[in-house]
Amino acid sequence: MLGPVILAASRSDRMRRFVSAAPGTKQVVSRFIAGETIEQVIPIVRETIAKGLEVTLDVVGEDITTAEQATAARDAYLELVDHLKVLDLGPKAEMSVKLSMFGQALEGGHELALANVRPVVEAAAAIGTTVTLDAEDHTTLDSMFAIHEELRKDFPQTGCVIQAYLFRTEEDARRLASNGSRVRIVKGAYKEPASVAYQDRREVDKAYVRILKTLMEGDGYPMIGSHDPRLIAISQELARRAGRKLDEYEFQMLYGIRGDEHLRLAAEGHRMRVYTAYGTDWYGYFMRRLAEKPANLLFFVRSMITK
Ligand code: FDA
Asked: What is the ipTM of this complex?
């Protein structure tokens, strides 16, 4: 019951101000956010890679309100590419982007987001890595998929995310499970109405498995974004049945969540990528992590009280 309330709070400016100023917030946020600056996150990238893992880096931010902010988002990613170039990690360090941060919700936003994200995808390709377009709320997805298709004409390795909780996703998966397409499947983290999304967690899990099967049996590149031990075991079995080798799919988990599992899967020979978020505009990302596991909220409240 708490999850939807926290997700509603994630859209509130008043709550944003309250949470950002609360004592103890920084300590809890640092579990999920790898740093506020690029200088803080680069050593974490190095450490993660040294453990045999890979990363996808996310500069946090969404729901911007001006074209200048969208340009600043593009520049933040271009600066990240400059740092990754020095590390010379190729596809071991890729990037995830939210198109809302590139201006998608502004007037003329579809074109603006495409114009802002293209140079980032280009710069990533020039250093031998890729970009994956995150999935946000359902109203943004037609535009996201159209931008994905457009970018893939020149950069076929550009990935996208699909969300198992949405009714539309099984059809999206059938369309995307081809032609080397890199597709991350996740359960879905936004507050969605019953008209477009399953509300029952068991229904979401069942849809996840059906979609996984489609992706595994297709000829794209599935990226399994989940910490759920049952779904991970099912993914391994479906990959085996589809005759996929270990380098023909990968697992992805979030920084700060089930770190032991990151290492276990990598030790088994799996490609394991850690979604590593950093930056100062962490509020929306942080609140979605609280909503996924309400026990995190108790921990957060306790840290405020004991400060
Ligand atoms: P589930 O929520 O059932 O969790 C399984 C177990 O994992 C829990 O029992 C708990 O142990 C642990 N766990 C999960 N979340 C936790 C948390 N916040 N804190 C502590 N423990 C936690 N969503 C989206 O809508 N668009 C996107 O683009 C992405 N991108 C993305 C990338 C990657 C790499 C991942 C792993 C996830 C996303 N997500 C996402 C988020 C996704 O939709 C989903 O909300 C979370 O992954 C939680 O779902 P699980 O599959 O982990 O299962």
From this structure: 0.99
